């Protein structure tokens, strides 16, 4: 397991005059797992987006280190995986093409054989291999969620964010999501945003985002 460190120092986010959260301090290291809880609309997804660099913080800072070396903000995406309802895939591409496109974004000049083997193994993992040539626009919501899970671990990220991971999943899909979460704890850091009590057993630590709203 690589040495991974994620720190939030005095992290705050507000939209216009509404404070979403403020003065949030957090330190996670390799093998750590965190559940972010709170009622709907209180800022769980916003915190995920800030830490994963999808949106900017209003104040404070996020620090990511791999093997003791700080990762520049614009390069953090190479070390992060994300599965979330607001993650959009390309409806006019098939499953294989979607994963191929994103794999090549994160990996410089990968060998074609390596790409094919990696993508096919992930599609098998999420039970979509037989539908790999189907356009995403013809997928059910559950199939799209499983493809998002494959996308999230495409490059074996050091930090994996799972925002409401059970969304649209049946029993088999939930088991896949949980197995991915357990595997991540052996690779780096796992962060889950959830309102589901069943998800909490995946994480050793828990914070309620509402504790940082006032």
Show the helix and strand layout:
Blueprint: E1 4-15, E2 18-29, E3 33-37, H1 44-51, E4 59-66, E5 69-70, E6 80-83, H2 95-106, H3 112-125, H4 141-152, E7 159-163, H5 171-185, E8 189-193, E9 205-208
Helix pairs in contact: 2-3
Highlighted features:
214 residues, alpha/beta, 4-stranded antiparallel sheet
- Compute the separation of the termini in Å: 37 Å
One letter per element, helices H and strands E, the order comes to: EEEHEEEHHHEHEE
The tally of helices reads: 5
Helix content: 25-40%
Number of strands: 9
Classify the oligomer: single chain
**Which word captures the global form?**
globular
Largest sheet composition: 5 strands, parallel
- Our Rg estimate from Cα atoms comes to 17 Å
Structural class: alpha/beta
How are strands sequenced across the largest beta sheet? 6-7-8-3-9
Average pLDDT reading: 94
Strand content: 25-35%
Unreliable sequence segments: none
Summarize this structure briefly.
The protein is an alpha/beta fold. The chain is 29% helix and 27% strand.
Structure in words:
- The protein has 214 residues and is α/β, with parallel strands linked by helices.
- It contains 5 helices and 9 strands.
- It has a 5-stranded parallel beta sheet.
- The chain is globular and about 50 Å long.
- The relative contact order is 0.22.
